[in-house]
Amino acid sequence: MKRMKHSILPVAFFALLPILFVISPVEAGTIVVPGVTGGAFTVKVTSIKEARFRTTVHQQYDFSCGSAALATLLTYNYEEPVTEQEVFKAMFDKGNKEKIRREGFSLLDMKNYLEENGYKAAGYKVTLDRLSQIGVPAIVLINIRGYKHFVVVKGVSAKSVLVSDPAVGAKTIPRAEFESTWNGLIFIILNKKNVAKNYFNRDREWHVKEKAPLGLALSPSELASVTLMLPGVLR
């Protein structure tokens, strides 16, 4: 019996070798799959990480979620391609450098950047239902166990919130969980809504596991107070 056990294992292994060699990466993002007639065909594949960051700018530094969130909003929701580095440099050059080094970017930094580039933007206190009625993506600040983090809300349903998170990419969060981490403020662009509305609550975004808004507008001093509140040293 022992002799048979030792002989079966190599036979099974060698029987699998043709499949292992055929279903192998030929280049990044593709695999070769054997066909039923003995041939093979190439299939393009997308990793979960690639899918999650398809419409989200990946932040490069621990304290740069503000610039990455704004780059995400402009690039993938307003059809205005811009890199995180471009937004970061522009906001840092024009902002309060000491405060930015100490706390990160604020919504006022974002507002100033947008207005210099032809946009009108403001912060409002609203509910998720009201944001859903407004129907445009918004930057919000969430607090996860003391870690304050900017994300872009791209959709709202009865049970979940769809966000583009610069740290982990697109994801859905149970509505109650999201509301427990959110301060109720949204930061939105007021013009070019005809463009942005096309990117709110898109079906394809939800499948990745991969009118003037009503509410009390925030003053410049209130916008300036909404920052990352994270220590960091700019390099």
Automatic annotation (TrEMBL):
<dbReference type="GO" id="GO:0006508">
    <property type="term" value="P:proteolysis"/>
</dbReference>
<dbReference type="GO" id="GO:0008233">
    <property type="term" value="F:peptidase activity"/>
</dbReference>
<protein>
    <submittedName>
        <fullName>Cysteine peptidase, C39G subfamily</fullName>
    </submittedName>
</protein>
<feature type="domain" description="Peptidase C39">
    <location>
        <begin position="59"/>
        <end position="189"/>
    </location>
</feature>
<dbReference type="GO" id="GO:0016020">
    <property type="term" value="C:membrane"/>
</dbReference>
<dbReference type="Pfam" id="PF03412">
    <property type="entry name" value="Peptidase_C39"/>
</dbReference>
<dbReference type="InterPro" id="IPR005074">
    <property type="entry name" value="Peptidase_C39"/>
</dbReference>
<dbReference type="GO" id="GO:0005524">
    <property type="term" value="F:ATP binding"/>
</dbReference>
